[in-house]
Amino acid sequence: MRRIALALTLCLSPLTTQAGGLGEMTPAEKDAFRAEVRQYLLENPEVIIEAMDVLQSRKADAQQQADVDLLHSNADAIFKDPASWVGGNPNGSVTIVEFMDYRCGYCRKAYSEVEDLVKTDGDIRFVVKEFPILGDDSLISSKFAIAVRMLHGDEAYKTAHDALIALRGAPDAETLGRLATEMGYDAAEVTAKMESPDVMAVIQANHALAGALNITGTPTFVIDTQMLRGYVPEADMQQIVNQARAG
């Protein structure tokens, strides 16, 4: 068995020809080794699956560690950015950060579940990162939400955020103007603020942060030292929160 394991290592790793291994064998010995390995794999094909499982596990571990390092080096921008809205319990023992896009179907699917999780748990600090990546409608929606927050505060932002998540039509000027009016604000003022450099600066900063964290899609969640790329069911997210809380 040890000889077979060695043969597997030698035949499956091209680097061995550069550092001994097959490079030290005669042509006849190489052929014998390869024939032995081939026969072993034909008789035990499950070995290949086991090897692939080990490889995937090592890759996953490496990715997780890379994520931990990225989160640590960007912690202030992720968790303490004053330009990002904070909801839930501001003093919660666990923080969930969501990079989201209003036109993202999975963000909309996650929305009610995250809302329920934050409400029922009661000990979660929730941070929203405006990360529009799905075209002009996404960008316009984020600019509206950020402008409302800058002009009228966090409570107004939450109202705008909820309305934009639920919006099924296009966020055109008429629709957003009507929304601003329904919220009790001057639509022209909000529209003007949307085009201000400080609103765009928030979006650009979020894009730069996402690039640093290798985030390319929405939703992406950060919980403690874990990065969750994509939709996560509420029950699974609660379990991750519990684990983060337990340390």
Describe this structure as you would to a colleague.
The protein is α+β, with helices and mostly antiparallel strands and 247 residues long. It is built from 11 helices and 5 strands. The chain has helices spanning 2-12, 27-43, 46-73, 75-79, 105-121, 136-152, 154-166, 173-182, 187-194, 197-212, 234-246, and strands spanning 85-88, 94-100, 124-130, 220-223, 226-229. α6 packs across α10. The chain is elongated and about 85 Å long. It starts with a helix and ends with a helix.
Instruction: Report the biggest beta sheet as strand number plus sense, adding barrel if it closes.
Output: 5 strands, mixed
Mean pLDDT: 89
- In the CATH hierarchy, the architecture of the largest domain is 3-Layer(aba) Sandwich
- Poorly predicted regions: 13-19
The secondary structure category is alpha+beta
* CATH class call of the largest domain: Alpha Beta
- Domain module count: 2
Widest sheet: strand order?
1-3-2-4-5
CATH superfamily heading of the largest domain: Glutaredoxin
Shape: elongated
DSSP strand count: 5
The CATH topology label of the largest domain is: Glutaredoxin
Separation, N- and C-terminal Cα atoms? 42 Å
Name the helicity range: 55-70%
Could you give the order of the helices and strands? HHHHEEHEHHHHHEEH
Number of helix segments? 11
Strand content: 5-15%
How is the quaternary structure best described?
single chain
Please compute the radius of gyration using only Cα atoms: 26 Å
